[in-house]
C-alpha cells in the first residue's frame, strides 16, 4: 500500500540586531518559537519566498544575505526542507508589529531573544549555535 507523500519547502530568516535574534510564535504551536518565514508558493524561488513572507508577516522589506542552514525533518506525514538565510538589515525589524503587516494575523507574537533567554527555538541545533555565538558562519550547515 502506498501513502501520499508530501514535501514542504520553507524559507526562514535569521535576523540579528544588537546580539538578539528575532523569533515568532505561530498560532498553531505551543511551547516553542521559530524563525520568521514560510512556505514556498508554486514556481517561487527560495529567496523570493523569504522576501514575500517578511513583507506579509512583518511588514518590512528584507535585505537577504547568505544561506546559513538547510534543515530537513519528517513530521506528521510531511517531509520538510527549510532554508535559513541571513537578513542583513535587522535594524529595520526592531520596531515591527503584527498590525503593520497584511498577514500579521498568522502569528501570535514577535519578539527578540538574547543568548541567555530561556526560550525554546526550533530547530534545536540552530538554537544551540545561537546560544554559543556560532550562528554566523562562512559555511552552510545541514541540520537533520
How would you describe what is shown here?
The protein contains 2 helices and 7 strands, in the order E-E-E-H-E-E-E-H-E. By secondary structure, it is mostly beta strands. The radius of gyration is 15 Å and the shape is globular. Strands 1, 2, 3, 4, 5, 6 and 7 form a 7-stranded mixed β-sheet that branches. Helices cover 15% and strands 38% of the residues. The mean pLDDT is 90. The chain has one domain (6-133): Alpha-Beta Complex (Nucleoside Triphosphate Pyrophosphohydrolase). The chain starts with 5 loop residues before the first strand and ends with a strand. It has helices at 46-58, 124-131; strands at residues 6-17, 20-26, 37-39, 64-75, 78-87, 107-113, 141-143. Strand 4 (64-75) and strand 5 (78-87) form a beta hairpin.
In short:
This protein has 144 residues and is mainly β. The protein has helices spanning 46-58, 124-131, and strands spanning 6-17, 20-26, 37-39, 64-75, 78-87, 107-113, 141-143.
Short key terms for the protein model shown above:
mainly beta; 7-stranded mixed sheet; NUDIX_hydrolase_dom; 7 strands; Nucleoside Triphosphate Pyrophosphohydrolase; 144 residues; globular
Termini separation comes to: 27 Å
CATH topology: Nucleoside Triphosphate Pyrophosphohydrolase
Helix % is 10-25%
Strand segment tally: 7
Protein name: Nudix hydrolase domain-containing protein
InterPro entries: NUDIX_hydrolase-like_dom_sf, NUDIX_hydrolase_CS, NUDIX_hydrolase_dom
Pfam families: NUDIX
Cofactor: Mg(2+)
Amino acid at each position: 500500500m502506498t501513502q501520499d507523500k508530501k514535501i514542504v519547502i520553507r524559507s526562514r530568516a535569521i535576523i540579528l540586531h544588537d546580539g538578539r535574534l528575532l523569533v515568532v510564535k505561530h498560532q498553531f504551536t505551543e511551547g516553542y518559537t521559530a524563525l520568521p518565514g514560510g512556505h514556498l508558493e508554486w514556481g517561487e524561488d527560495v529567496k523570493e519566498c523569504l522576501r514575500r513572507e517578511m513583507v506579509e508577516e512583518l511588514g518590512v522589506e528584507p535585505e537577504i544575505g547568505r544561506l546559513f542552514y538547510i534543515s530537513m525533518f519528517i513530521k506528521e506525514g510531511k517531509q520538510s526542507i527549510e532554508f535559513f538565510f541571513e537578513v542583513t538589515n535587522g535594524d529595520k525589524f526592531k520596531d515591527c508589529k503584527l498590525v503593520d503587516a497584511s498577514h500579521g494575523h498568522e502569528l501570535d507574537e514577535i519578539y527578540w531573544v538574547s543568548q541567555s533567554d530561556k526560550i525554546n527555538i526550533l530547530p534545536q541545533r540552530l538554537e544551540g549555535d545561537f546560544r554559543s555565538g556560532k550562528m554566523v558562519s562562512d559555511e552552510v550547515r545541514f541540520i537533520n
